[in-house]
Amino acid sequence: MIDTKLLQTLDDCLNTIVPAEEHLSLDELRGLFYAQMITPTQHDALPWLSAIFKGQHPAISETQAPLLNQATQAVYSAYHDLLTTNKLAFPFDFEQLDEELAEIAYSWCLGFFAGLAINEVFWFGKKGEKLKPSDAGLESIRNSAKLFGGLATKDFSDFDQAKIKEIKALLMGQGEEPSGDMIAIALFPNVPIAVKTLHIYGVKTMQLAAQQPQIQSAIKIGRNDPCHCGSGKKYKKCCG
């Protein structure tokens, strides 16, 4: 379990930069960091920072920047510790789901989707991607990710259409309008298994990548070439 104080410190820090409605809530942050943990390593922190601010890039002062970095790193490290000790798990028991808890879990799902969307191709596939019958496993991954996209946007046109047709028929049979909201409610109980499916896939992908041998660069740096450290000096007058 993540220390709530860590997330509250981050939330307080975000509030000094933009109003609360312009950044992810505490529950959305929990979902975002979970998605970050199970997504293959991102070397550029900017997409994650942008996601925290709902896609915007607010001005961050020299005073705010180190505080924000410290707060995000503290939360990141706490989540990473859970991942490496196999304690990272979906934080809700849907067997005990009431209206209040469902609202919190939905906010978590919004943050989780924001995290998945940063590595869109990995989780959702390339635009126009055509899967073969033999890609049943990958299709399950794609649909699990698209479930969160549908919950966030209420647009399920990219989700498993056979399942959507079944849900629409069931809703109409009950005299309900098969709107995006109603479909989202019907699919919401599938969230725990979808998270587990994505978790397993993401972690397995990272483990396989870690097993690949690291290839060292064989490019020789000339003594008069710019130094690779970025100092702007010639290699022979710097790291050479």
Secondary structure topology:
Blueprint: H1 4-15, H2 26-38, H3 46-52, H4 64-84, H5 99-118, H6 120-124, H7 136-153, H8 161-173, H9 180-187, H10 191-211
Helix pairs in contact: 1-4, 2-4, 2-5, 5-7, 7-9, 7-10
- Provide the gyration radius in Å: 22 Å
Task: Determine the N-to-C terminus distance.
Answer: 48 Å
| H-E string | HHHHHHHHHH
Total number of beta strands: 0
Overall pLDDT confidence:
87
- Multimerization status: single chain
Provide the helix percentage: 55-70%
Unreliable residue runs: 215-221
Describe this structure in words.
- This protein has 240 residues and is mainly alpha-helical.
- Helices cover 57% and strands 0% of the residues.
- The chain has 10 helices and no strands.
- The protein has helices at 4-15, 26-38, 46-52, 64-84, 99-118, 120-124, 136-153, 161-173, 180-187, 191-211.
- Helix 2 (26-38) crosses helix 5 and helix 7 packs across helix 10 (191-211).
- The longest helix has 21 residues, at 64-84.
- The radius of gyration is 22 Å and the shape is globular.
- Residues 215-221 have low confidence and may be disordered.
Question: Can you summarize this structure?
Answer:
This protein is 57% helix and 0% strand. The protein has helices at 4-15, 26-38, 46-52, 64-84, 99-118, 120-124, 136-153, 161-173, 180-187, 191-211.
Using brief descriptors, characterize the structure shown.
240 residues; mainly alpha; globular
